[in-house]
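FORM 7B: Structural annotation worksheet

SECTION A. Query
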Amino acid sequence: MPRPSLRISGIVPSGKDGWEVHFAAWTRKEAGEDIIMLSVGDHDFDTPAQTIEACVTAVRASNHHYTPLPGIPRLRKAMAAASTACTGVATNPGQVIA
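SECTION B. Predicted structure
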């Protein structure tokens, strides 16, 4: 079973809930401060039409339930191939959690 990186031990809890920090930053941004939100992956561009259509197609095909625990085999295979292509390190689907 994968283990967390040892680097995680260097992260000291701040005592603040992540959402508390997010909403404090959001409030300041709404008040006009030049804030770059790093708490969520909310992009500053419209969602591409191709992405919207892929989501609609998936929902219509009833692909909106929990996946099997090991992940979707086709997705794991694609992610292994992408990892191999990007890193040059041979990755097989059995090494992917998706």
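SECTION C. Observations
The chain is about 40% helix and 0% strand. The helical segments are 18-30, 49-60, 73-87.

SECTION D. Sign-off
Analyst initials: ____
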